[in-house]
User: What shape does this take?
Amino acid sequence: MSKNVLIIGAGGVGNVVVKKCAMNPQFFDEIHLASRTVAKCEALRQEIGERITSVHAVDADDAAQVAAVIRKVNPDLVVNVALPYQDLPIMDACLETGVDYLDTANYEPKDVAKFEYSWQWAYQERYKEKGVMALLGSGFDPGVTNVYTAYAAKHYFDEIHTLDIVDCNGGDHGQAFATNFNPEINIREITQRGRYWENGEWKETEPLSVREDLDYPGVGVRASYLMYHEELESLVKHFPTLKRARFWMTFGEAYLTHLRVLEGIGMTSIEPIDFQGQKIVPLEFLKAVLPDPGSLSIGYVGKTSIGVHITGIKDGKPKQVFIWNNCDHHECHLEVGAQAVSYTTGVPAMIGASLILDGAWKGAGVWNMEQFDPDPFMARLNDHGLPWNVIEDDSPIRFQNG
Ligand code: NDP
Assistant: This one.
């Protein structure tokens, strides 16, 4: 069986996916790479050589262009690590050509910052009819956090009742202000209203207004803020016993101060404004002046600590489990020239791809990560750079406010 992959996107995450696929010829034969700026693909080919079979310029906003590249290279799977705006045209191209699809972030329309699976779930019947599969959100969060949840539900509980996903970047890149993945996507995500699931309904909070000081293994105590994150939507759907599901992310004071100022003066807005006779989007302009996340890895020190804290019942008794990974920025730099946020996204994308190509995860239709057997994915996390830990009947994560 051939195991050829077309990777779309040659940014921070694309760099990791390409290199991890290249390191694993047991899973991947041909590796084709396409992106908007073909020079970035060429640079990667220069760096890692003939393991990249071919490179292509593509505007993935245009499904016809993506379909043309797919026809040229004939892959078994398309891995989309461009931006969420391109999810639908790439899904359209995969549908048209009958090729499986994987991404790491849910579709967002460019003109409204909205995070929901409705647009991609709407492909369910068409993918089933065509006999192709789409695996949504195979990064860390979403991605590994969904698989951790499925693993806990399978091995430790009869029923899960509460889920808290806790995401800490305890690293220091030495820049005054920078984001760890695409700045436009990142700032759209963290400036939206908070949202969590409780007793069968979504509850909303003002952006970054709910705080807990949480003790992250490998990092220590960090201020953590309740945010909405896309995996909550699929997890409450696929684990209907969940009474509450929340997502927390750490931010330092300096980061929040910069963000408040940028928001206050309108620099994070996605409404186009007139500037010297042309329309510009302030957030797109801000992206252009901020450091490229892919360039942050040199001198980046410290670790990420991301996990899931779950409570529920087993054999009629209350139970709690915490599963997490620590990832060291400098070690990622040494291995693949990336910081840990790109690394923790790129490795799960490679693993999801390997499971689809193996046939371990397969089925026509549109899937979220937690719908498949978590065990092979968890095994490959340990083998490919993201080993995980589990604590049963105790947890370092303690909420002061419940
Ligand atoms: P970057 O901005 O570094 O890279 C994006 C890449 O996509 C660039 O190479 C860019 O090209 C390319 N691209 C953008 N638009 C197009 C287009 N129209 N056609 C073709 N290529 C295009 O982003 P990251 O690598 O940081 O992020 C990649 C993805 O990973 C994003 O969707 C992000 O949301 C997701 N992500 C997921 C996480 C998770 O845990 N699930 C965590 C972090 C990120 P160019 O070089 O020309 O700009």
